[in-house]
């Protein structure tokens, strides 16, 4: 077998591909860590299948398309768990009749990705089990992300009155037995995780199957970004995942910096890393209190966690002036320097948190009822988790040791010493353990970096540019592996902005977890997925 | 309240017909007596226990009502309490952008709440569409779907802004203006 | 506590004299005197009880706030004391919505019946020596029977809402009843074995020298746990679990009906806590040395309120078990334990009775 150094070299994959599929490959190139392969549209599925089975590429990072004026270019990104190489398959499709074979028969994780492409571009995937729109209502006309899209008037007012009849689609498509009910756990529901609909098919008190319906806060960020300048898009990316907004705009500015060819100063990189880890702690606290509220300990952990979060929000407010959507990172660095006394306050807050963590862990783990509610609930075995496309803590809870900060280090993660938190069982309890472990690792990372911040400038002034090229950057969001891909074609605004969100893939694993479970487990399972609808609905 | 016959408002071409009929005289008299005699009590009671619907659309939901109920800002001091069902709620806080798919849901929730109800539009997205105003899927402002009583600007507004708005709502209800 | 007894007896005589004068003036026949007196007793009891109920609801909210490190209701009246009145008045004047396809008769009937059945056991509970509205020989069975009717009403209420979530919540409540009913009754029966009587007054007076909690510790624990289940309070509030089924069986009820449900829940709490106090905690007798300092009814209320604080504490600390786990707790642990307790009590009967 090839050694690790050979596997980490994209050239290896390109030569293997050319050897196997010489005639359908149009072009190959190496872009940073990516092994890019241009394939004829009829053989995309074959090459992808080979990449999965022979070359061990495990999950699709994302699937996107670029609307060149005379054709549609389909772009697939696949990741590898053993090396930082990204396998990129690109193919040109006919604009008037874009048809390509679907990957879902051997790669179930691509299910929602292909539906989104159908929704946004009109690309039809043959062999997809359920090809219908994902974000937009089913009777929407037009494909928004195409360059010649003109929005038509959508009669949302008529739908206002006919809401109570909208069950027709479901009655038509599901034949329910006599003792079954189809329940819409609707967009407004006290499961406090946002605006989506969980359709469940219930027999007595048992859920036979369940699947999500999303798109209730789809704002078209990717389309809006095509009309704004690179600097103006930063607040939009902020509001993608509002619970961990630091990680999103930092990801965006890192991608733009790669596109512009600008390297931020070292002080800015230290500050960015520290702030990202603080954001991870805050995001996991919010996840923990949501889990506690759903299981029933609303009163104990929910409000204590909010108290801890407020201390971190004070720190964020000192550094950038906002409590929730920070817009702190800029192209070329960060917006403001660290004020005086911030570092001491951060050390105090971290010490407080470290002191309280055993208490919070004891409140949850010391309670027999908590174990009863979370063990062996919503189990995803290792193979299912990888196949279904789970990311981040959901994947690591199923005994997969994969973290972008270790495989493909960015910012300063290559220089600090930390472990990847994993757990063995893949149930809700394991995900809890993984996230608590990640909080402790984040505290460790911050404590290693906080005394070593070098002096220097915190921002490099970058004048607006008109770049030509592409840039792809991926990071480890609190929810998993996230990525952004920008295509610039010589204007002040991007030609295409692709946002790859981990919570989207995590949410699409819900059908695997909701097979024949008692109804009361829905709360724990949904809470363990760690949703943030802003980033799922883009 | 004047007593009159059945009133029919003559419509234009495309308007709907509104028919206003007066209630029987005894009921109106009883109502008027109750309102004049106990109106102050009713308004006081309504202003002091605004029960909040459990709705969280987008970012502003983390601040309002989640952080506003936190120990630091504590909106329960004003008697705000989230009952679990729309049938028992007084105040609906709309805290996110309304998309064309979601407008029907907001209207249905609005219809399910019993009178008297008050709608608070929190954040720029609910007021005017926010940073996503030009999007193809966003309705610019929730007041195109349901009538709004109080607007709180900000993106997101601080929880103190929400507490201030609660106070304003309380004063307006107490004086019987809403 | 002679001054207290004098006060009560003189005020009662005053009321009786008023009624007699009214009867004399209006020339009402004599055989109506007894029912009217009983009715007056009940009305006074309920009025006084409502005051206590308002206080309980108020300080539950304050206590939960303090556990959360914040101050709960403070704006309505000083310290938020008028908050419950505001809530109740507001609920009364809200619009009443009955869904189109719901059962209108049941929708109107169930809340009223619920409140009625919750308040009925109050008339047999003795709050102090000679402080009760009625003295039935089988008052313990009466109270337990009234409490057992609650799940049936909940099923009707869930059905009346015409809503899938309501139905699920109602069925869950019915299933929960199966879990707590038997252990609760058997734990109460162990006390009956000791006193040889089902009359709550007799059970109270039998605890003059020693409280039954010392003779029946396990019975007390079982009764405590099953009473939390019976009241559907957290952590056993599956039928109204917010995160899963919105408000459960209460979903479709608004305005005054919901107010009646909320009120009835707290009335139930009071009834069950009084039952626990009478059965295990000595009724109206105070502790040995400082007993005579306060009137007996005050001791009774103190015990009830302390138990209530314990309930609130438990509510704040535990997550909710699933339905099958709840049934397992009820049938695998509580029921055998209750039976064991009964058998041990029966075996040690002569020694325990000698201690009373």
Structural description of this entry:
The complex is a heterotrimer of chains A (538), B (178) and C (356). With 538 residues, chain A is an alpha+beta fold. Chain A has 2 domains: 4-126, Beta Polymerase, domain 2 (2-Layer Sandwich); 221-502, Orthogonal Bundle (Cytochrome-c3 Hydrogenase, chain B), CATH 1.10.645. Helices cover 41% and strands 19% of the residues of chain A. Chain A is built from 21 helices and 16 strands. In chain A, α10 packs antiparallel against α11 and α12 (342-365) packs antiparallel against α17. Chain A is globular. In chain B, α1 packs antiparallel against α5. Chain B is of the alpha/beta class. The longest helix of chain B is centred in the first third of the chain and has 24 residues, at 25-48. In chain B, the strands form 3 sheets. In chain B, strands 3-5-7 form a 3-stranded parallel beta sheet. Chain B has a two-stranded antiparallel ribbon with strand order 1-2. In chain B, strands 4-6 form a two-stranded antiparallel sheet. Chain C has one domain (94-355). Chain C is globular, with a radius of gyration of 22 Å. Chains in contact: A-B, A-C, B-C. The interface between A and B is large, with 47 and 41 residues.
Q: Estimate the mean pLDDT confidence of chain C.
A: 84
Q: Number of DSSP helices of chain C?
A: 15
Q: Spans of chain B of 5+ residues with little confidence (pLDDT < 50)?
A: 1-11
Q: What is the arithmetic mean of pLDDT of chain B?
A: 80
Quaternary structure type: heterotrimer
Q: Which properties best describe this structure?
A:
heterotrimer, A: 538 residues, alpha+beta, Beta Polymerase, domain 2, Cytochrome-c3 Hydrogenase, chain B, 4-stranded antiparallel sheet, 16 strands, globular, B: 178 residues, alpha/beta, Rossmann fold, 3-stranded parallel sheet, two-stranded antiparallel ribbon, 35% helix
How do the helices and strands line up, and which of them pair or pack?
The complex is a heterotrimer of chains A (538), B (178) and C (356).
Chain A: H1 4-7, H2 10-20, E1 25-31, E2 34-39, H3 44-53, E3 57-68, E4 71-80, E5 86-94, E6 99-101, H4 111-121, E7 124-126, H5 156-161, H6 168-173, E8 180-185, E9 197-203, E10 206-213, H7 221-225, H8 234-238, H9 245-260, H10 266-295, H11 298-320, E11 329-330, E12 333-334, H12 342-365, H13 368-374, H14 382-388, H15 392-396, H16 404-407, H17 428-449, E13 468-477, E14 480-489, E15 496-500, H18 502-507, H19 510-513, E16 517-518, H20 521-528, H21 533-537
Parallel strand pairs in A: 2-5, 6-7
Antiparallel strand pairs in A: 1-2, 3-4, 4-5, 8-9, 9-10, 10-16, 11-12, 13-14, 14-15
Chain B: E1 7-8, E2 19-20, H1 25-48, H2 60-66, E3 91-94, E4 98-99, H3 103-112, E5 118-122, H4 123-128, E6 138-139, E7 150-152, H5 159-174
Parallel strand pairs in B: 3-5, 5-7
Antiparallel strand pairs in B: 1-2, 4-6
Helix pairs in contact in B: 1-5
Chain C: H1 2-26, H2 33-67, H3 83-92, H4 104-119, H5 139-148, H6 150-160, H7 164-195, H8 200-205, H9 212-215, H10 217-230, H11 242-245, H12 255-280, H13 296-317, H14 323-347, H15 349-355
């Amino acid at each position: 077998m090839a050694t690790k150094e050979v596997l980490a070299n994209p050239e290896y994959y390109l030569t293997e591909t050319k050897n196997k599929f010489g005639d359908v490959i149009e072009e190959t190139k190496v872009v940073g860590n990516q092994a890019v392969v241009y394939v004829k549209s009829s053989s995309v599925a074959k090459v992808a299948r080979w990449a999965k089975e022979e070359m061990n590429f495990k999950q699709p990072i994302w699937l996107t398309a670029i609307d060149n004026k005379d054709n549609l270019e389909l772009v697939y990104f696949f990741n590898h768990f053993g090396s930082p190489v990204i396998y990129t398959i690109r193919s040109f499709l006919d604009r008037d009749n874009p048809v390509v074979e679907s990957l879902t028969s051997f790669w179930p994780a691509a299910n929602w990705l292909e539906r989104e492409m159908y929704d946004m571009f009109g690309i039809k995937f043959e062999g997809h089990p359920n090809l219908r729109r994902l974000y937009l209502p089913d009777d929407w006309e037009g494909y928004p992300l195409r360059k010649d899209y003109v929005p038509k008037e959508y009669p949302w007012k008529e739908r206002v009155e006919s809401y109570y009849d909208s069950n027709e689609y479901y009655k038509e498509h599901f034949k329910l037995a006599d003792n079954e009910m189809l329940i819409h756990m609707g967009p407004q529901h006290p499961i406090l995780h946002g605006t989506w609909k969980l359709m469940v098919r219930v027999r007595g008190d048992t859920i036979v199957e369940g699947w999500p319906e999303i798109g209730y806060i789809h704002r078209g960020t990717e389309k809006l970004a095509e009309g704004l300048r690179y600097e103006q898009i930063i607040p939009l990316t902020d509001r993608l995942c509002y619970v961990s907004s630091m990680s999103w705009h930092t990801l965006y500015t890192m991608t733009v910096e790669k596109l512009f060819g600008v390297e931020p100063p070292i002080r800015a990189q230290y500050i960015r890393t520290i702030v990202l880890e603080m954001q991870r702690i805050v995001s996991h606290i919010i996840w923990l209190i949501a889990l506690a509220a759903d299981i029933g300990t609303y009163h104990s952990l929910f409000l204590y966690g909010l108290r801890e979060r407020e201390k971190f929000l004070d720190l964020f407010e000192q550094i950038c002036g906002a409590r929730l959507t920070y817009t702190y990172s800029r192209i070329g660095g960060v917006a403001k320097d660290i004020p005086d006394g911030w570092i001491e306050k951060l050390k105090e807050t971290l010490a407080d948190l470290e002191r309280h963590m055993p208490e919070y862990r004891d409140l949850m783990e010391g309670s027999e009822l908590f174990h009863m509610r979370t063990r062996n609930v919503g189990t995803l075995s290792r193979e299912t988790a990888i196949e279904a496309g789970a990311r981040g803590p959901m994947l690591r809870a199923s005994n997969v040791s994969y973290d972008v900060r270790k495989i493909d280090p960015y910012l300063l993660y290559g220089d600090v010493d930390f472990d990847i938190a994993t757990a063995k069982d893949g149930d809700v309890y394991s995900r809890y353990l993984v996230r608590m472990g990640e909080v402790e690792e984040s505290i460790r990372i911050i404590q290693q970096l906080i005394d070593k911040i070098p002096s220097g400038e915190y921002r490099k002034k970058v004048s607006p540019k008109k770049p030509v090229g592409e840039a792809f950057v991926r990071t480890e969001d609190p929810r998993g592996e996230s990525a952004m891909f920008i295509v610039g074609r010589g204007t002040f605004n991007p030609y295409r902005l692709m946002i790859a969100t981990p919570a989207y893939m995590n949410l699409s694993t819900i059908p695997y977890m909701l097979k024949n479970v008692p109804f009361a487990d829905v709360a724990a399972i949904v809470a363990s997925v760690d949703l943030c609808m802003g980033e799922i609905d883009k | 309240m004047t007593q009159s016959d059945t009133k029919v408002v003559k419509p234009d071409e495309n308007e709907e017909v509104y028919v206003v009929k007066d209630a029987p005289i005894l009921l109106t008299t009883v109502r008027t007596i109750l309102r004049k005699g106990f109106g102050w009590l009713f308004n006081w009671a309504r202003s002091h226990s605004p029960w909040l619907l459990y709705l969280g659309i987008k970012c502003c939901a983390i601040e309002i009502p989640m952080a506003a109920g936190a120990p630091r800002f504590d909106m329960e001091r004003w008697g705000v309490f989230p009952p679990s069902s729309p049938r028992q709620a007084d105040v609906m806080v709309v805290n996110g952008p309304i998309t064309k798919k979601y407008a029907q849901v907001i209207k249905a929730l609005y219809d399910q709440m019993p009178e008297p109800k008050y709608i608070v539009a929190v954040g720029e997205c609910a007021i005017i569409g926010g940073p996503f105003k030009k999007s193809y899927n966003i309705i610019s402002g929730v007041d195109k779907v349901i009538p709004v009583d109080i607007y709180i600007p900000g993106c997101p507004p601080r929880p103190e802004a929400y507490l201030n708005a609660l106070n304003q709502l309380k004063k307006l209800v107490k004086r019987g203006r809403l | 506590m002679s001054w207290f007894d004098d006060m009560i007896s003189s005020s009662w005589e005053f009321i009786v004299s008023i009624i007699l004068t009214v009867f004399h003036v209006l020339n009402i026949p004599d055989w109506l005197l007894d029912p009217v007196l009983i009715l007056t007793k009940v009305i006074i009891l309920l009025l006084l009880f409502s005051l206590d109920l308002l206080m309980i609801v108020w300080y539950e909210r304050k206590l939960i706030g303090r556990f959360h490190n914040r101050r709960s209701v403070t704006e309505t009246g000083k310290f938020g004391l008028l908050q419950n009145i505001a809530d109740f008045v507001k609920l009364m004047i809200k619009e009443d919505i009955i869904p189109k396809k719901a059962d209108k008769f049941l929708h109107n009937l169930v809340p009223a019946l619920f409140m009625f059945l919750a308040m009925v056991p109050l008339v047999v509970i003795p709050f102090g020596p000679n402080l009760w509205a009625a003295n039935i020989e089988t008052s313990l069975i009466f109270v337990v029977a009234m409490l057992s009717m609650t799940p049936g009403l909940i099923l009707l209420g869930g059905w009346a809402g015409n809503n899938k979530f309501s139905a699920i919540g109602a069925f869950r409540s019915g299933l929960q009843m199966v879990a707590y009913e038997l252990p609760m009754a058997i734990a109460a029966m162990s006390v009956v074995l000791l006193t040889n009587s089902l009359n709550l007054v007799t059970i109270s007076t039998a605890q003059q020298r020693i409280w039954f909690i010392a003779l029946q510790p396990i019975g007390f624990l079982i009764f405590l746990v099953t009473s939390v289940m019976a009241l559907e309070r957290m952590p056993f509030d599956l039928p109204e679990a917010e995160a899963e089924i919105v408000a459960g069986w209460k979903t479709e009820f608004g305005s005054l009906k919901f107010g009646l449900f909320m009120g009835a829940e707290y009335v139930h709490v009071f009834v069950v806590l009084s039952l626990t106090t009478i059965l295990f905690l000595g009724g109206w007798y105070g502790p040995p040395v400082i007993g005579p300092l306060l009137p007996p009814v005050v001791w009774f209320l103190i015990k009830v309120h302390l138990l209530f604080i314990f309930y609130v504490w438990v509510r704040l600390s535990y997550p909710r078990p699933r339905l099958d786990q709840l049934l397992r707790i009820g049938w695998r642990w509580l029921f055998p334990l209750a039976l064991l307790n009964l058998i041990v009590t029966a075996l040690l009967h002569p020694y325990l009775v000698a201690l009373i």
